[in-house]
Amino acid sequence: MIITIGRQLGSGGRIIGKKLSEAMNIAYYDKELIEITAKESGLNRTLFEEADEQARTGFSAGILGMRIPFLSEGGIAYSGISNEMLFQIQSDVIRNLAGKQSCVFIGRCADYILRDRKDCFSVFICANDEDRVRRIISYGGDRGIKCISVEKARDLMERGDKRRAAFYNYYSNKTWGEAASYHVCINSSVFGIDGTVSLLKEMAEKTSVYSV
Q1: Single pTM value for the model
Q2: Are 199 and 22 in contact (CB under 8 A)?
Q3: Burial (0-12, 13-18, 19+ Cβ within 10 Å), 23
Q4: What is the DSSP string of 131-176?
């Protein structure tokens, strides 16, 4: 059983994914993917993180050419590499992990990357703006900023969604957050975090892909 979760910034999607993986006793992958990808590719983890950040910030004709150092037998070497190449490397890691065990993937176009698998259940989580702003303030936004204002939280919310949409829409042939792009779209403000986890678990276990 593979569950992919796309989410609005501040919707609680990350904690829902984590709790869902624990409730179903399956693996969970979010930031862990950077560590695994860096290890398997030989690329420096810090530079993968920086590339991930650049990819979310914007695209220049779809590709941001970079010279990224990687580990080699002789020490650090350099190689020209594009964001598309980095995306492909991470996509291969996601496919390999999905082929080994049941798991939950957060973001990173995992639903599109695994679109050919019949055991993949894709979810998008949204929430009311008030709850999203409150949650962003509570954890300081997506950059660890502390004591931010409501206005700053709203700005982070809007920019965060734009980055995620740009990333998803560029690498997939679907539209981020659109119902037709996923099996299920759910509002965590209506059901709460734990209620959303329970509903998704029930739906996942009842869906036809669970028994494949």
Answers
A1: 0.83
A2: no
A3: middle
A4: HHHHHHHHHTGGGT--S--HHHHHHHHHHHHHHHHHHHHHHSSS-T
> Running DSSP on this structure, what letter comes out for residue 37?
H
CB 153 within 8 A of CB 137: yes
More confident residue, 70 or 136: 136
Q: What is the pLDDT of residue 187?
A: 98
Per-residue tokens: 40: 């398997």
Residue 29, helix vs strand vs coil: strand
pLDDT over 60 (residue 77): no
Using 50, 70 and 90 to split pLDDT, how confident is the model at 7?
very high
* Cβ 156 vs Cβ 144: under 8 Å: no
> What is the 8-class DSSP label of residue 207?
S
The DSSP code sequence of 59-124 is: -STT---EEEEEEETTEEEEEEE-HHHHHHHHHHHHHHHHHHS-EEEESTTHHHHTTT-TTEEEEE
pLDDT per residue over 142-197, tens digit each? 555 566 899 999 999 999 999 999 989 999 989 999 999 999 999 999 999 999 99
Closest-CA residue to 16 (of 203, 202, 197): 197
CB 100 within 8 A of CB 36: no
Note the maximum CA span of the chain. 56
